[in-house]
Amino acid sequence: MNPDDLKAIIRTIPDFPKPGIQFRDITTLMSHGTGFAAALRLLAERAGPTDLIAGIEARGFIFGGALAQLLGRGFVPLRKRGKLPVPTIGIDYALEYGTDRLELDPGAIGEGRRVLLVDDLIATGGTALAAARLLREAGGVVEQALFVIDLPDLGGADRLRSEAIGVDALVNFCGH
């Protein structure tokens, strides 16, 4: 399967969560065995040298964890506030209507280790940028981020590139 085949599997739900939004539903790809396996293979082919894979809660856990296993690397979860049972470091970031927070166990990274950031989708880039900054604060070297879907009109990939992070996505959808 190629990226166009994967794109055809991803369901679009119009007017969710509000009118005018075209929601790209990745669950149809995750539930398609051949498509999910192909997406992971394509992500693995695009992965540069890395020591660890970091995935953003929640769907980044699915793709990041599976990719870490495929590449024989460790996986680091970037969690929402209060989900880790150990002392954490965290970063607050802006959402459309408020803020949120990502946290991680700082001992999970190690100074100078190369960390590949993985998530299912990049839109405005706020969450991914916060994740990269948090990983760097923990001592990680973040030079690449991989996504299944990019919504390029929202500019998130360019925000990451402005901080010296290479960005790649398997498929692009124009618009919101």
Q: Would you kindly provide a written description of the structure presented here, covering whatever features stand out?
A:
The chain has helices at 3-9, 27-30, 33-46, 59-71, 126-137, 156-161, and strands at 11-14, 22-25, 52-56, 74-80, 89-95, 98-104, 114-122, 141-150, 166-172. The chain is an alpha/beta fold and 176 residues long. It has a 7-stranded mixed sheet, sandwiched between helices. A two-stranded antiparallel ribbon has the order 1-2. Helix 4 links the parallel strand 3 (52-56) and strand 4 (74-80). The mean pLDDT is 96.
List the helices and strands and how they pair.
Layout: H1 3-9, E1 11-14, E2 22-25, H2 27-30, H3 33-46, E3 52-56, H4 59-71, E4 74-80, E5 89-95, E6 98-104, E7 114-122, H5 126-137, E8 141-150, H6 156-161, E9 166-172
Parallel strand pairs: 3-4, 3-7, 7-8, 8-9
Antiparallel strand pairs: 1-2, 4-6, 5-6
Helix pairs in contact: 1-3, 3-4
Task: Write a brief caption for the model.
The protein has 176 residues and is an alpha/beta fold. The chain has six helices and nine strands; from the N terminus they run H-E-E-H-H-E-H-E-E-E-E-H-E-H-E.
